Each structure stands twice: as structure tokens, then as C-alpha cells.
Amino acid sequence: xxxxxxxxxxxLLATSCLLVAAQNAPPQSKPGFRVAVNMVLVNVSVTSAEGxxxxxxxxxxxxLFEDGxxxxxxxxxxxxxxxxxxxxxxxxxxxxxxxxxxxxxxxxFLGKLTPEDRVSVIDVAGRVQVVQGFTTxxxxxxxxxxxxxxxxxxxxxxxxxxxxxxxxxxRGIEGRKAVVFLTDAQDAGSKCRIEQLKQAVYVSDAVLxxxxxxxxxxxxxxxxxxEAGFSRMxxxxxxxxxxxxxxxxxxxxxxxxxxxxxxxxxxxxxxxPRRAMLLLPYTDHRAQVxxxxxxxxxxxxxxxxxxxxxxxxxxxLLTDSSSDLPQRIQADILGQGTILVLGKxxxxxxxxxxxxxxxxxxxxxxxxxxxxxxxxKYRDGRQEITALCDHSGGRTFDLLGMSDLDTFYQQVAExxxxxxxxxxxxxxxxGQYHRLEVKLSKASQANIRSRRGFLVx
Length: 457
Prior knowledge:
Rossmann fold; 2 domains; 13 helices; 19 strands; 26% strand; disordered N terminus
């Protein structure tokens, strides 16, 4: 069942600043220094009406408001100041065919940043791994990017990854910070809930940039194939010797009880070497399957019996031994089926393996429900990521195709280069959310983007 489980992998199968008083600020060539605890920093991106960078602005050009009350800007950093950039790379199973392109585009992105920008690379799939901490060494970062490969672990822990960056990776780092990631906004498996991530974004002064790739049609097709593939499964039983027949029957009955109730099962036995016979057509009646198991010969006979059954895509071969399988089992079962071997082990050992196998089988009824919910879930996921990026002062980019990756990364690099940092003293009380707004002091057609508010932890 190799093909089916590749589908399952796809189904289970989706980014600050310095705060010090201006009069006490160290030279701008040294970005890492401690800041006053009662200061708030706001990163501000300023572009002309044509989208061009607006360099040379000074503190007097800005007006900053907290909850509608104008604040005195006590800290200012020009758009040339360096960033700490966390670059998230999705290596989950759904990126298998695109990962090479993603790695190359991410590598070219490094060359678009300033030499002083410090970058960290985080591998995101069914786990979150910091493969490289913050460094300005572009060659080292390139090597680490090339090491990232697709994982066999299910899931895309997008929310967990962003939370880890904001809460842990950026901890103790003062200065301008940004998180850059490519995603379809569909999280799969994160322990972090969206409300928890919102709180982390509100507390952090990092800017989030997301490239949204639309995978809804591909995901729907994959789920439809999975639903079809797991709706019907063939169970083939075989023992290499007469004294293992009852062991195989016992294991088969145990597995039948573990499989989701909405999976229909057909039963086949090996009547002769490399020849199988259908004993029971597809049914969801578990008692009938187990009754047929009691009458299955299981052990191959020496007589050459003509086969009346061919293995479907979703097939489970349950056998006692892996020895000489090509000589004992017909080729399409070996090529398409999942092989479960009992071996010479105690029952509790093979029972553990069968439980783990059954746990990975999705219920067709659940897949059908997920297909109905997919459009709304997909829309909600994209809206959540867009809202987080907008609130942080960053933004999202809609990716039409992987060929647009370089364009996206170029835009993000330009955004970072036209970002100013403003700091002010705040009397904000802990545990409360406060709105932020930044304006240009003189009437202008320039576009301003900055974080929408903050939360004092």
C-alpha cells in the first residue's frame, strides 16, 4: 500500500527592535544591546504611492499614538539598521517535488539581505528543528539549507514553529526582528492554538511575512484519493508453516477489530505459492470477516491452484515470516501492499505494532467530513495568517506559482530595507492590549505599515 500511504502523508497532510532612549543609544553599528523595560518599539515600513522606498526620514517626520494619545518618540533607528531574520522552510511530505526549488529560492533570498542581517534557518514539518542559529555567514547558511530534506513524519507544525521563534529563538535578542515563511496556511498537528499564537504576536515586536501558496485544489484531490483508497482494504493472510497458522489467524482477528468501522474489508488467503484466492468480498461486517478467518487455510498448499483474485491498491499482507517472500507471495501484493510480519515474537509485541499501524489508518467517514469542511477551513487558515502578519506590521503575498518565489523574497528584502524603528516610553499596564498608530507629520501620499498594537505580558 505504498501509493496509498504517500497520499496519507500528503493529507496529514502548511515570521523589533531596539528599545533605548535616544540620548543613551550606542553607535548604530552595534545592534545587540539591552533596552529599557518600559519602552515600546514600533517597526514602520514607508513607501511612496508608487511602492518605492522612502529613505532619509527623521524622527520629526513621524507621529506615534498609543490608544489615540500622541507619544514622544525617544528612540529612532533608520532603515539601514540590520535585522535578525528567522527563515522557515517547509520540508513536509507535500513539498517533496518542490523542495529543491524552495531551497534555491531561499538561498538567493540570503543574498538579497544586507551583510549585517543575521539569519536563522528553521526546518518545519512534523517537527520543528532549528538547523542553524543566527549568523551572518552566508556560506554556512547555504550549506544548512542544502541539508534540509523531506521528512517521513506527518503534519506541518506551522503554528508551533512561529511560536517557538517568537518565544524562544528571539528570547534575549534586542533589535529588529522578522519571521519569513512560505505556507499554504494549513496547520496540521500543532499543539499551539491560534489564540495562543495571537498572544505571542501581540507581545512580540517581530514583523511577520508570509508567502501564501494556494494548494486547495491539490489537497482536495489528495483527500479524495485517500478516501477512495481507505474505504476498501484487502486483508491477505499467510503462514510459512503449519505451526504458525493459528498465530496468523489470531493476529488477523486482532487487526480487524482495530481498523476503523467505516473501512470495508475483503479477505484473501494464499492457496498456493504466489497465488491468492478471495474468501470474502468487501464487507463492513466484522463478525463475518472473523468467521471467514476461522475457515481460511492460511498455509499455502503444494497443489497449483488457479488464482481468482488480484490485489487492489489498498492491501495488507499479514504473515508470520519475511523469509523468501518473493517465492511465497504474489508480486502485486508485494508491490502494492503493506507487509505486517509477526516474526517469532510474543503476542504483546506484535499487538503493539498492529495498534500503531491501525492508528495511522484514517476513517473514511472522517475523510468525507473533512472534504466537506475543506473550503471553509482553508479560507479560515489563510485569513488567520493574514491577520497575524498585518497586525505585526508585515504582510502576506499571494503566490501564483513557484516561479514567483524569487519575486516574493525580493519584495521581503526590500520591505526590510525600508523599515524604520520608533521607540517610546509607555505606562501601559500588564495584561492589557493597547492600540498603536503611526502617521507622517506632514500630509503625504506615502503608505505606512506598522504593528497594530501590543500586549504587555
